[in-house]
Amino acid sequence: MAARAEITAKYARQYARASQKDKGRLLDEVVAVTGWSRDNARRQLRAAAKPRPARPRRRRRPRKYSYDALKVLQRVWAFSGYECGKYLAAAMPTLLDSLERHGELVAGKRLFSS
């Protein structure tokens, strides 16, 4: 597939500037090399000759939780048995109360033991 793309890119510049007679000859060459039909070869050459517009870079969504909050959430999620978000949200108050009561959410304590 990469070889076909290289061949198409090579011939596309020539195809865009060629006369009608030369375009037919170039199409014959591309068809012989790639095994495509003439219609597909013509379509590929025309598409490769067009300049592609630069896509604007998407801005990343800002973080919703801090790094420390994510670690606590991961710990609570692990204690819940990796419940889905719907059930985790419903069980969160009970889980947090019981984890605090048993000393599992103490500041400075390692969250995950190795």
Question: What does the model show?
Answer:
Residues 42-62 are annotated as: Disordered. Residues 52-62 have a biased composition (Basic residues). This is Integrase. The chain is mainly alpha-helical. It folds into 2 domains: 2-49, no CATH class; 62-114, no CATH class. It contains 5 helices and no strands. It has helices spanning 2-17, 20-34, 38-49, 67-79, 85-101. Helix 1 packs antiparallel against helix 2 and helix 1 packs across helix 3 (38-49). The mean pLDDT is 86.
Question: In a nutshell, what does this entry contain?
Answer:
This is Integrase. The protein has 114 residues and is mostly helical. The protein is built from 5 helices and no strands.
Strand and helix layout:
Elements: H1 2-17, H2 20-34, H3 38-49, H4 67-79, H5 85-101
Helix pairs in contact: 1-2, 1-3
Region (Disordered): 42-62
Organism: Tomitella cavernea
Protein name: Integrase
Unreliably modeled segments: none
User: How is the main sheet built?
Assistant: none
Question: What is the CA–CA distance across the termini?
Answer: 46 Å
Mean pLDDT: 86
- Beta-strand segment tally: 0
Organism: Tomitella cavernea
Protein name: Integrase
Biased composition (Basic residues): 52-62
Region (Disordered): 42-62
Throw out a few tags for this protein.
114 residues; mainly alpha; 2 domains; 5 helices; 64% helix; 0% strand; rod-shaped
